[in-house]
Structure formats: C-alpha cells, structure tokens
Amino acid sequence: MTAPTLTAPDPRDSAVPGRARPRRRARAVIVLVVLALLAVGIAVGTRAAVRAADDVRSGTRAVSAHEFAAATGVDLSLLGVTAQGGMIEFRYQVVDPDKASLLLHQDDRRPILVAEDTGATLVMLSRPHNHKADLKLGGTYFFMMANTQNAVRDGTKVTVIVGDVRLEHVVARA
C-alpha cells in the first residue's frame, strides 16, 4: 500500500477559495462596468425624454406683457418669494374681469411657473381662491402658490404659463 501524496494546490486553479483566475476576474469587472454604464445611460436618456415630454412650455406661444394681459385678463404685478422661500405670491391687476375670472376658475387656465435656470415646474393643484364677488376692473388681487423645493428664489427668471400663452423672463422678488 502506498501513502497518498499531498501536493500544494495550483494558484491558477479557480477551485481554490479566494483565488479566481485573473482573466475571470477581469471579465467580471468589465461586465459590471458595462452594465453600470448601460444603466446610467438608460437613466439619463429616460430622464431627458421625460423632461422633454413634461416641458409645459411646448405648445404655448411666447407673448409680451401687453399680449399676456390681453390673453389672460390680468397684468402680472409681482412674483414674490415669501414665507421664507416656501411660497410664491402671484399678484395681479385685473384688465378684463371676464378673462381674469377664467384664470381663477378653470383648471386648464391655472398659472404654471417654470424656473428658467433649472426647468423646475410649479403647478397649482387646486383653485387659488373662490371669489363670491365679481373681479373688478383695475382691482389688484393675489394668491399664493407652494414653492416646492424652493425652486424659485429672489432673482430667479420665471416663465409664467396660462393656457396657451407664456410670459418669459419674469424676475421673482423677495
């Protein structure tokens, strides 16, 4: 009977715990890097596509302040950042009470604000207020909007969208 011979395991043998073949390890790293880059590419592409689809400015036409007032019935006096940055005051003067009333009572005519530097969009989810009385020609009114994630700050240029018109480069003030 012969005694079994003990030999040291070959370091290139992948069966040795903790020692994978260098080629396998390199392939695994390459596969992981490729998968990570693919995931990042998909995420960036998806985000860009969603942002483009959600850009509420598309389908609207840029107008002057005078044309904005004619189309909406309001002359925008102030976009004020208030409540320690948590709210936006939308102050306006009524130039056409009938059109201005639509601004307050029709869902598709609620103002939408877009911060021009970041593209952050602030949308009013409910009516700003419920006027029992008629809006008066020349009257000044306001409503508040949530400034989600402090998207608009003092000095931010904002695009104001109402219906199919947009007023660009309105500077928010604190």
The main sheet orders its strands as 1-8-7-4-5
Strand content: 25-35%
Count of β-strands: 8
Share of helical residues: 25-40%
How many helices in DSSP terms?
3
**Biggest sheet statistics:** 5 strands, mixed
The secondary structure category is: alpha+beta
For this structure, the CATH topology of the largest domain is: Immunoglobulin-like
Summed up, the domain count is 2
Question: Could you say which overall geometry the principal axes of the C-alpha atoms support?
Answer: rod-shaped
- Terminal CA distance reads 97 Å
Brief description of this entry?
This protein has helices spanning 22-54, 65-72, 97-105; strands at residues 61-62, 74-82, 87-94, 112-115, 121-123, 140-146, 157-162, 165-171. By secondary structure, the chain is an alpha+beta fold. The strands form 2 sheets. A 5-stranded mixed β-sheet has the order 1-8-7-4-5, with helices on one face.
